[in-house]
């Protein structure tokens, strides 16, 4: 019995894929990295932190003092505790308002419970900032 056209094509494809596979295997063997010297496999890091194949230039090396190396978290720089500002808005009937901080021009909420002296719009005041769930709030507020 003779073979059909589809069967012949399928056999041709199988033979071609077998041949391609053998060719790929030969290429891999020819270009194998096995047996390279240690120097060929070595990688270096340059002064910018990039990986290179060339060793770093020791003449461009910068000495770092041990005192310049900081271990752990950055030190906290204390902020000034007492701040000054101007009352930009204060509602005496509802008991709250806002103070505009002089240095940063931020508005800070103030409640009448935190007043040491009564205040009104336009007064210069000193206060301390306290973090609350809704943002900063002024405490220990008194007129200057």
Could you explain how this protein is built, in words?
The chain is an alpha+beta fold and 144 residues long. The chain has a domain at 82-143: Beta Barrel (OB fold (Dihydrolipoamide Acetyltransferase, E2P)), CATH 2.40.50.140. It has helices at residues 5-30, 38-41; strands spanning 44-45, 51-52, 82-91, 96-101, 107-111, 124-132, 135-143. It has a 5-stranded mixed beta barrel. Strands 1-2 form a two-stranded antiparallel ribbon. The longest helix is centred in the N-terminal third of the chain and has 26 residues, at 5-30. The mean pLDDT is 87.
Key descriptive features of the protein:
single chain; 144 residues; alpha+beta; OB fold (Dihydrolipoamide Acetyltransferase, E2P); two-stranded antiparallel sheet; 2 helices
Q: What order do the helices and strands come in, and which of them pair?
A:
Layout: H1 5-30, H2 38-41, E1 44-45, E2 51-52, E3 82-91, E4 96-101, E5 107-111, E6 124-132, E7 135-143
Parallel strand pairs: 5-7
Antiparallel strand pairs: 1-2, 3-4, 3-6, 4-5, 6-7
Task: Describe, in short, the structure shown.
By secondary structure, this protein is an alpha+beta fold. 21% of the residues lie in helices and 30% in strands. A five-stranded mixed β-barrel has the order 3-4-5-7-6. Strands 1-2 form a two-stranded antiparallel sheet.
């Amino acid at each position: 019995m003779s073979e059909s056209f589809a069967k012949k094509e399928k056999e041709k494809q199988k033979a071609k894929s077998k041949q391609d596979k053998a060719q790929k295997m030969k290429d891999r063997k020819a270009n194998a990295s096995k047996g390279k010297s240690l120097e060929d496999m070595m990688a270096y890091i340059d002064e910018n932190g990039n990986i290179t194949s060339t060793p770093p230039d020791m003449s461009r090396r910068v000495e770092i003092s041990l005192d310049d190396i900081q271990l752990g978290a950055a030190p906290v720089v204390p902020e000034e505790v007492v701040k000054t500002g101007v009352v930009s808005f204060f509602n005496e009937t509802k008991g709250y308002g806002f103070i505009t901080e002089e240095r940063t021009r931020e508005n800070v909420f103030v409640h009448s419970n935190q007043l040491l002296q009564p205040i009104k719009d336009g007064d210069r005041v000193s206060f301390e900032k306290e973090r609350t769930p809704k943002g900063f709030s002024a405490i220990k507020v008194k007129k200057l």
